[in-house]
Amino acid sequence: MSEDEKLLKEAKKLPWEDRLAHKNWKVRNDANIDLAAVCDGITDPKDPRLREFGPFFRKAVADSNAPVQEKALDALIAFLKAADADAGRYAKEVCDAIVTKCLTGRPKTVEKAQISFMLWVELEAVEAFLDAMEKGIKNKVAKAVVPAIDVMFQALSEFGSKIIPPKRILKMLPELFDHQDQNVRASSKGLTLELCRWIGKDPVKSILFEKMRDTMKKELEAELGNVTGNAKPTRKIR
């Protein structure tokens, strides 16, 4: 048995908290894999282990080691699939940690972060999700802003305007229209068009157009003709 194998075998005897915060990244990685497997096996959302696991994720998803961070997101996704709305008590701190630490990560990390956000919405933690998005769009790194806008687009598109309040998104959009990064501007334009599908073109135009540069107005006007206002949700909250 190699030294690593011995270390991992011994570490399995430790409490979850100690394994997840272990100084050796391989132990933390292994702990997250095990945690995901346990959550995958939970069939009752009232299982007391879910209450035990909930507080772990705030630190786990902020791991400085990229592979470990990705495994932590896997564990979080498994946890959220097993949980019910009671997990919302952990939503704010975990969503904030994901926005701060995961959206500048590797493409797979960003994708898993977005999946977890959608699961939080499914568990009715919409306020915590949108609060985190407000922080996400203020990130100085444009690479982190685009996934935040894109996951809001996805949430609105799938859950609809009864679950995702358009007012919250309308407040966030103006500062994105003048963003120096063209990908941010393109994503914000897509989100604006999606809003039009849900609440109509006129409310969106009356609130947002006066805050836009002429170029963006022209671009949006050109695409508004293709927008139909009969959107229907494809996903429900649990």
Automatic annotation (TrEMBL):
Positions of the TOG domain: 2-233
Q: Which Gene3D superfamilies match?
A: Leucine-rich Repeat Variant
**Gene Ontology annotations for the cellular component aspect, listed alphabetically:** cytoskeleton
Specify the superkingdom. Eukaryota
Q: Which GO terms describe its molecular function?
A: microtubule plus end polymerase; microtubule plus-end binding
Q: Where does the secretion signal sit in this chain?
A: none
| Pfam families, per database record | XMAP215_CLASP_TOG
Record keywords, A-Z: Cytoplasm, Cytoskeleton
The protein's location, in the record's own words, is: Cytoplasm, Cytoskeleton
Major localization listed first in the record, in broad terms: cytoplasm
Tell me one GO biological process term. Answer: spindle organization
Q: What is this protein called?
A: TOG domain-containing protein
